[in-house]
């Protein structure tokens, strides 16, 4: 049997794998540098995401690797706990993901408010943009998200007054310009992925004009990989580290499963098995943690490129991991020629795409409550931190749902003679009890009342008791007994 007969889609998957490799290469390096870890660790995560997660069942066409969405969280974790603890965090997060997948919790991530997820990504995007603009301007970024944004104008003005910083800023801006304009290039030229073209042109420009800009530091793959030591696991006793593990787990899982839902809309192949995909993501993260590398998620940019390039099976994402491995093993020195402001420009562009401007406008017109949740989540992440910001967003979403679930309408029909007719519809819960009683007690005391509860979808015990007590008080005033039509 020929190879083509055994693997009928090999040609399409092979071509798609090369495209995904070229898209993933600059992003893996850029995410690692922005996270404050050696560039090679980004490649390690990309390799594991391609070969290990790629071989497992779950979603057949989505591609995993280091994601811009976790950059801010990784940077904060490395700054607070140190690089050796990163492996422990990622390993523990991976094991939790496997456990959640085995317990079939993957489907529950689909129930998370879309506004919270989009607000989370918007907040990440804002912090990422602000932080990487400092890298473009060859300046050190402040620690907090608010300081990053508040001090940004001053940092950019300072860059204009210094030749080296101005060269760095110009190279970063040029990289963003290439990414924005690449879609307008001739179709033949667009066979080269935009991120690779932008980094390639920036690298060429820096070399030709001998620009005084910072370059990626190269350690070598084996030197960069540092599995966590036994002493690093002692950090698990700290509450702060445990909170970070929970944040990594929830955010990585939500981003991966929402990405899977988006990728399913791009193709007609097999649908994602969410619990199995969560196990696959967990296995990949557990291995990344054991190697001391970055955490992974499914990445929509690489996944969309995979589908658009004509991939038909999981072979394309596995092969892209193989190409990353060969590059890291044979050509690691090439990374040393890549300018850091070019990578920062790619991440500024990626951060901007995380901010759902159109969705915010649409939500504001149709569902202002959802728009408010999105904006508050994003602002909270910038002002406080990632974990607390997401918790604030989830709390708002739950509060909004509870409020809407208790929606109640009281319609009073008073014809001036005869009984007053009152119609209750919706959901009568204790949250609306004060309003119900205020309206009923405002009815005329000297007139008979007919209370129709047939329009209620739900009547809790507290409301039922309160309505019965009101009916007794109203009837005791000397009028006819209140006639109640049961719910």
TrEMBL record:
Residues 10-377 form the SLC26A/SulP transporter domain. It is found in: Membrane. Its main location: membrane. Keywords: Membrane, Transmembrane, Transmembrane helix. The chain crosses the membrane at residues 14-34, 41-61, 81-103, 115-134, 165-182, 194-216, 236-258, 322-351, 371-399. It is a multi-pass membrane protein. It comes from the Bacteria. InterPro entries: SLC26A/SulP_dom, SLC26A/SulP_fam. This is MFS superfamily sulfate permease-like transporter. The lineage of its organism: Bacteria, Bacillati, Actinomycetota, Actinomycetes, Kitasatosporales.
């Amino acid at each position: 049997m020929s190879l083509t007969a055994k693997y009928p889609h090999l040609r399409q998957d092979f071509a798609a794998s090369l495209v995904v490799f070229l898209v993933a290469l600059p992003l893996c390096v850029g995410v690692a540098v922005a996270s404050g870890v050696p560039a090679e660790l980004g490649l390690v995560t990309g390799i594991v995401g391609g070969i290990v997660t790629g071989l497992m069942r779950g979603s057949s066409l989505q591609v995993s690797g280091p994601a811009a969405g976790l950059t801010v969280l990784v940077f904060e974790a490395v700054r607070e706990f140190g690089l050796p603890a990163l492996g422990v965090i990622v390993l523990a997060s991976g094991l939790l993901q496997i456990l959640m997948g085995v317990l079939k919790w993957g489907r529950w991530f689909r129930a998370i408010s879309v506004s919270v997820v989009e607000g989370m990504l918007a907040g990440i995007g804002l912090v990422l943009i602000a932080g990487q603009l400092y890298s473009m301007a060859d300046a050190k970024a402040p620690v907090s998200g608010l300081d990053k944004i508040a001090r940004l104008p001053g940092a950019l003005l300072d860059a204009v007054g210094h030749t080296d910083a101005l060269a760095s800023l110009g190279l970063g801006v040029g990289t963003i310009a290439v990414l924005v304009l690449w879609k307008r290039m001739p179709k033949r030229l667009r066979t080269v992925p935009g991120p690779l073209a932008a980094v390639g042109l920036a690298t060429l420009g820096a070399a030709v004009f001998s620009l005084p800009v910072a370059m990626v530091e190269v350690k070598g793959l084996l030197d960069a990989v540092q599995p966590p030591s036994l002493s690093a696991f002692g950090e698990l006793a700290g509450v702060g580290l445990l909170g970070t593990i929970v944040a990594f787990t929830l955010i990585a899982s939500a981003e991966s499963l929402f990405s899977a839902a988006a990728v399913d809309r791009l193709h007609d192949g097999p649908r994602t098995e969410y619990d199995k995909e969560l196990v696959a993501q967990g296995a990949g993260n557990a291995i990344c943690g054991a190697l001391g590398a970055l955490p992974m998620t499914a990445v929509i940019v690489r996944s969309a490129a995979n589908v658009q390039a004509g991939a038909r099976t999981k072979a394309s994402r596995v092969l892209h991991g193989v190409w990353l491995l060969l590059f890291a093993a044979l050509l690691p020195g090439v990374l040393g020629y890549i300018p850091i402001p070019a990578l920062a420009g790619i991440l500024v562009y990626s951060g901007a795409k995380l901010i759902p401007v159109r969705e915010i406008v649409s939500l504001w017109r149709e569902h202002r409550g959802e728009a408010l949740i999105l904006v508050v989540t994003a602002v909270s992440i910038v002002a406080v931190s990632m974990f607390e910001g997401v918790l604030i967003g989830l709390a708002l979403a739950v509060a909004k749902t509870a409020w809407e679930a208790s929606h109640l309408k009281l319609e009073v029909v008073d014809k001036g003679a005869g009984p007053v007719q009152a119609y209750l519809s919706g959901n009568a819960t204790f949250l609306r009890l004060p309003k119900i009683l205020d309206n009923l007690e405002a009815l005329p005391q000297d007139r008979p009342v007919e209370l129709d509860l047939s329009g209620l979808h739900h009547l809790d015990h507290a409301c039922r008791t309160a309505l019965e007590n009101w009916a007794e008080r109203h009837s005791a005033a000397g009028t006819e007994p209140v006639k109640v039509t049961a719910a």
